[in-house]
Amino acid sequence: MALVDDVRTHLNEHYGARGFAPPASASVTFLGLAPMTVQRWVGDGAVAFASLGCSQHPMTDPDALVTAEDGPRAEVVVELRPAPNGPGAALDGVHRAVAILAASPAVEGLVLAPDALVDLGQPLWAGAPFTAVLLGPSTVPDLPTGGEPVRFLRADPITANEAAWVRLKGADGLREAWAEAGIDPADPGRPAARAV
């Protein structure tokens, strides 16, 4: 069974155990790359998106003189809790943003890791005030492989102001500010202007 099939099974078991409905899938194609699949699960008041395909190849530093045969492998997970009919409820285009993030190691040589700030330079979905994500651990456990395990990195949507905060005070600084202000980064309708 190919690694992508193992990842699909692992994700379906995880979200199935949490009571999410079976997933829908979308495919996004990038020039010169195999199509990137994004799955979407809908649960009680929550929507989860996850990439399938980022982990097929180990991520390596593009500036390294020697390319490692094995390296870190990851998939991108976005979990959101939109209010019914509230701001951000439609989430049109999230699958494309997830696919762009998942393709970034192959396209731009990024190594996706916890606390990394990735700025897409465009709204993560139609009308969203969020143009970047902050990566961190997700609820999905690592998937063992013959080499490095596949890590499932949660991508929290952030605004340009929040991205500036991360650059100034670090990822933990932003998370502490969220906690102090009672901000849930999974709420797509959260008041972006009062984020920090």
Structural summary, described in words:
This protein has 196 residues and is of the alpha+beta class. Helices cover 27% and strands 23% of the residues. It has helices spanning 3-17, 94-108, 160-181; strands spanning 24-28, 36-43, 46-52, 73-80, 117-119, 132-137, 150-158. Strand 1 and strand 2 (36-43) form a beta hairpin. The longest helix has 22 residues, at 160-181. The protein starts with a helix and ends in a 15-residue tail after the last helix. 35% of the residues are buried. The mean pLDDT is 87.
The averaged pLDDT comes out at: 87
> Helix proportion of residues, in percent?
25-40%
Radius of gyration from the CA trace? Answer: 16 Å
Poorly predicted runs = none
Q: Which band does the percent of strand residues land in?
A: 15-25%
Summarize the structure.
This protein is of the alpha+beta class and 196 residues long. The chain has helices at residues 3-17, 94-108, 160-181; strands at 24-28, 36-43, 46-52, 73-80, 117-119, 132-137, 150-158.
Strand and helix map with partners:
Layout: H1 3-17, E1 24-28, E2 36-43, E3 46-52, E4 73-80, H2 94-108, E5 117-119, E6 132-137, E7 150-158, H3 160-181
Parallel strand pairs: 4-7
Antiparallel strand pairs: 1-2, 2-3, 3-4, 5-6, 6-7
List keywords for this structure.
alpha+beta; 3 helices; 196 residues
